[in-house]
Design goal:
Length: 224
């Protein structure tokens, strides 16, 4: 992997790059998690780790987790149940003792819950859901795999690919390009960059190209 997201300084560099992309795109739909089946997008992933919800929220999501887990045990191929289990576990990761609001960071139990969400997500993907259904959960998993979450750049790219496939547009492909460069996947980043430019208005292409290439330089990759 060409870019190690573990260093705090490098994580901050990526945050600035993604935020500048969001501003350039006028608050792009997917960057801010608007227009999908779930709330939250990559800007949430890089500016917020989670937090909030209180006891009532924790009880609600714990109940959802319990119900979804029971459903998967009744039918191990229930796509909806695995998707709901991933959502509930992701939500729990940002509540109560799982998230330190003073540091705006997941605690060890919070990261463990994100790992459980990842397990449910991967089981969901193994059942070959439709791109639309997969993209709804992928919007959350992008956040789970972000530097301040599980810090798994390659899995973040996989989730972002599903979003781009389901909702193709300059925003989603620009986000895929920056994610791919961060994961050291240069060819995938170049292809996504080209697609983002192809789908963007002509008068915005050069500005978008510059932002994506800035992201590539920030990760240590060189955009083609």
């Amino acid at each position: 992997m060409l870019f190690d997201l573990r260093g705090r300084g490098r994580r901050n560099t990526i945050k600035v790059i993604y935020l500048s992309l969001a501003i350039l795109m006028g608050g792009g739909l997917v960057l801010f998690g608007i227009g999908g089946g779930t709330s939250g997008g990559l800007v949430d992933a890089i500016t917020q780790g989670g937090g909030g919800g209180g006891d009532a929220g924790q009880d609600r999501f714990t109940k959802r987790e319990t119900q979804a887990l029971a459903a998967t045990r009744r039918d191990a191929e229930d796509q909806a149940a695995w998707a709901e289990l991933a959502r509930a576990r992701f939500s729990l990761a940002g509540i109560g003792g799982n998230f330190d609001t003073s540091r705006n960071a997941y605690t060890d139990p919070g990261r463990a819950k994100l790992r459980q969400a990842s397990d449910a997500w991967e089981r969901f993907l193994s059942l070959n859901p439709s791109p639309t259904e997969a993209s709804r959960v992928a919007s959350l998993m992008v956040q789970a795999y972000a530097p301040d979450g599980l810090n798994e750049a390659e899995k973040l790219v996989t989730a972002q690919e599903l979003i781009a496939e389901a909702r193709p547009g300059p925003n989603t492909y620009a986000q895929l390009a920056t994610s791919a460069y961060a994961a050291g996947q240069k060819r995938k980043g170049d292809l996504a960059k080209d697609k983002a430019l192809e789908l963007s208005p002509k008068d915005e292409r050069e500005a978008l190209r510059g932002q994506i290439e800035q992201a590539a330089r920030g990760t240590g990759a060189a955009a083609g």
